[in-house]
Amino acid sequence: MAIILRFSKPWLNKTSPIILRFAESGNDVPVSVPINIPVDIVVDFNVSEIVIDRTFGIEVGISWFALDEVEQALLLAEFARDHHVAVESPWLSYNAEVTNFESNWVSNVAVDHVWSVHWLFNDEHVRTNIAVSWALPAAHQITLAFDWLVPDNHDLNTMLNWLDTSSYQLATNITWLYSEIHEYDLMIHYRGFAIGDEKSIKWGFHEPRWVCSTKYRPPVGKVTLRFNEPLSTQPNPIVLRFTASPNYCYWDDGGGLIDANPPLPTIDFKIPIEPQIRRSYLMQPQISCVRVSDGVAVVLKSVSISQSRSQWASSGSLAFSSRIDAERAANELLKISINGYDFYMLCESPSESKAFGKTSYSATGRGRLATLASPNRKAINYVNVVARSFIGLMADIVANTGWTVASQITDYPVPANAFSYAAKTPAEAINMMANSIGAMLDVNDETQTITVIPQWPVVPWNTASAIPDVILHDGVILEFNERIDIRPDANAVFVRGEQQGVAAKVKRFGTAGDNFAADIVDKLITDNQAARMRATAELASAGNKVQNSIRAKVMADLPPMRPGMLIGVRKGAEVFKSVCESFSISGSVNESTGMVTVNQTVTLLRNEVAA
Questions:
Q1: If we measure between CA atoms, which residue out of 97, 104, 92 comes closest to residue 29?
Q2: Rounded to an integer, what distance in angstroms lies between the CA atom of residue 252 and that of residue 114?
Q3: Within 10 A of 503 (CB to CB), how many other CB atoms are there?
Q4: Regarding the domain delimited by 287-370, which CATH topology (the fold level of the hierarchy) does it fall under?
Q5: C-beta of residue 273 within 8 angstroms of C-beta of residue 469
Q6: Parallel, antiparallel or unpaired: strands 40-43 and 2-5
Q7: Contact (Cβ atoms closer than 8 angstroms) between residue 80 and residue 20
Q8: Where exactly are the structural domains of the chain?
């Protein structure tokens, strides 16, 4: 809407703000009712040439979009007297009231004029209905029919496995969006006649299957029935009723009377390590040493590592090339590589030796299992307050240390409060447990795994039929020594536990069992398996032994031998087998030539006369 105000003459004395008040004719009392519609007011001024318009009235144009409350400020630079305002509108109006217009324009005299307009709207709302309707097709029926002709002539040799079957009904429901649910029914009726029958005969062995039954399985041998009181009134015959046996299942691999899938015999694929026989052996020994914590190299002049079956960790000695190397290795875990084979040693006791014009630095140490021994671990007391297995007890002792326990022996239960020790470190405790049942510890320093193995993996009287782990021949044997170790003989032994346990007499198979060794009493003999393993070790150690000391090289096809291995030695046309009692490996560097020398020495034990 645009309102145009025209003034007939200027009034220069008027200062801002100029306030215009409009009122109806004959009514000078303004009604302050603000108008809530947007208004555009245009004022035309012409100072140089004043044109007096004799026309009476003011044109007012009003337009609006939404009845929002809008405040409009009117700025005027001139003053005009009260004029009659005529409003012409295509809408019906009534009770025209006064609406205020305010201007923030500077004016000397503030005159209020009020103009207000109320518009009349129809009481009834106008509603527009838009209706869209469409027709959906009625339900359609789809009929699918198949007609086929069967020839008159039939082949009598044709046999059809057709079954007289009742009618089937196939219902398919399809739901359309924005529409009703339509249902389509497909009905198929067919009927057949029995034309012939078919018989099948199976022959051959039956298929493998599981067979389960509760049929009573009597024990093998004589069954003895004992009655606690006589029953004289019971007539003959006497009927015995037994409760059903538990459901027992076994695997039937088929075959009927002749087994179609016979179990294959156990094949021993163990192949002994035997170096090839050559005219000459070319070797380039190497020795290297690094610190495990950060990989810093340590230069060695010589190294010697040894271990026996009675030791729980290897022991060794080192000679360093300089003081700096000795300081780097002090109280550190070292990884020593000898001809590609790794050994771990905890350098514990460094030493220094001085002579005229010469100073040497050396140290002694133990294997990595020394981390579970004094001074790295404190000695404690222990009692098994709950029942555990033998290997479970070992696992509890080394728990949360980074070490794990494996077993190559028969595990057995240990009752609660049957095992205890005082003032022992974890390494000493598990070594004592292994010795109690005639076993030993085979320690893998790299993986930190402790394996419990028998002290005699093959008893001396059964070595003839056993397959050795390593076979040595004259081409790799640098030195061979033999002596007789005199020991008392025995073919039986009594083994028993302490407060809790078993007592057993164990004798060597095939003997009279009349020559007893010293009795064995140990708190861990709580099961027949424990008694059998400990007695086997005692009887294997009894009797005269032949002790051999062999020095050989360390090559790709001749690894370092370990205690507990079964070693075969070719002595002419004969091959005798012995158990490795201890081993040692040594390496040294010549100070003048820098030549490296590596040797290994093993001590073997076997019976003087094979059984």
A1: 97
A2: 115
A3: 12
A4: Phage tail proteins - horseshoe like beta roll fold (2.30.300)
A5: yes
A6: parallel
A7: yes
A8: 1-123, 287-370, 387-455+487-542
Of 187-196, 335-344, 499-508, give the lowest mean pLDDT range. Answer: 187-196
524: Cα separation from own chain's centroid: 36
Give the tokens for residue 586.
């040594």
Please count the other Cβ atoms lying within 10 Å of the Cβ belonging to residue 589. 18
CA–CA distance, 13 with 79 (Å, rounded to integer): 9
600, 303, 577, 604: which is closest to 476 by C-alpha? 600
Instruction: Assess contact for 389 and 346: CB atoms under 8 A.
Output: no
Measured distance CA(210)–CA(520) in Å, rounded: 47
Identify the bridge partners of residue 300 per DSSP, sorted by sequence position.
320
- Residue 153 DSSP label: -
**How many angstroms separate the CA atoms of 569 and 329, rounded?**
38
**In this structure, what token pair is assigned to residue 126?**
């106008």
Beta bridge partners of 337: 288, 342
pLDDT digits (tens, 9 = 90+) for 224-238: 777 777 766 666 777
How confident is the model over 310-330, as a mean pLDDT? 92
Show the 3-state SS of 71-137: CCCCCCCCCCCCCCCCCCCCCCECCCCCCECCCCCECCCCCCCECCCCECCCCCCCCCCCCCCCCCC
Q: What is the number of other CB atoms lying within 10 angstroms of the CB of residue 527?
A: 22
Q: Mutual orientation of helices 390-397 and 426-436 as an angle, nearest 10°? A: 170
> Would you say 544 and 608 are in contact if contact means Cβ atoms under 8 Å apart?
yes
Other Cβ atoms within 10 Å of 278 Cβ, number: 9
C-alpha dihedral (6, 7, 13, 15), degrees to nearest 10: -20
* Distance of alpha carbon 57 from the chain centroid: 96
460 vs 13, residue with greater confidence:
460
* Residues of the chain by 3-state class (helix, strand, coil), percent to 5: 10, 30, 60
